[in-house]
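#struct-pred
JK: can someone run the complex with glutamic acid? inputs below
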Amino acid sequence: MCGIVGYLGDRPAYPMLIQGLRRLEYRGYDSAGVALVHENGTLDVFKSKGKVADLERATQGQDVSGTIGIAHTRWATHGEPSDLNAHPHTDVKGGIAVVHNGIIENHESLRRYLESTGARFVSQTDTEVIAHLLNHLYQGDMRRALIRAMGMLEGSYALGVICDQEPNALFCARNDSPLVIGAKDGEGFI
Ligand code: GLU
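RT: done, structure tokens with the ligand placed:
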């Protein structure tokens, strides 16, 4: 059972996300990752096969600043446990990052369609279609793109999404998979 975590607020997101992942470790997982929007609006992804401690080693010396981010512990269903298959997944430009708990049943047909529109996949996961689909549907409003994507995705999902075009926002959606949202005093948690 994987887990997703997201934070939006004015405190550093990275320690909060790592703490969240540690609290999900008991569920079992094979890899872990995190995506952050930095203050300058750029988005970075760090991910690693193995434990949360391996992810922390992978981020040593890296810029993990930012007050908005998403994180994931993966239990592989599509594609072996590996650095590449670990979440977050991104679109080709790397501006949209997605973490996903669940299974996208129609990922093969979506993948074929998105490849025909120019998307280039780098992982074997069902999840990567979501990042490319959001990029395909995005017209300046991620909330709208996510709602349209939900009409095309079949299967179970809890999703966390961040995007460099809307660097002050954290998006989430769910179908069948559980997702808890908390919001208080200008901070949001998933
Ligand atoms: N189906 C996705 C994958 O294999 C998500 C698995 C999970 O829920 O951790 O990457």
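RT: quick notes.
The pocket of glutamic acid is lined by residues 2, 74-79, 100-103, 125-127 (CB under 6 Å).
The first helix runs from residue 13 to 24.
JK: thanks, will look after standup
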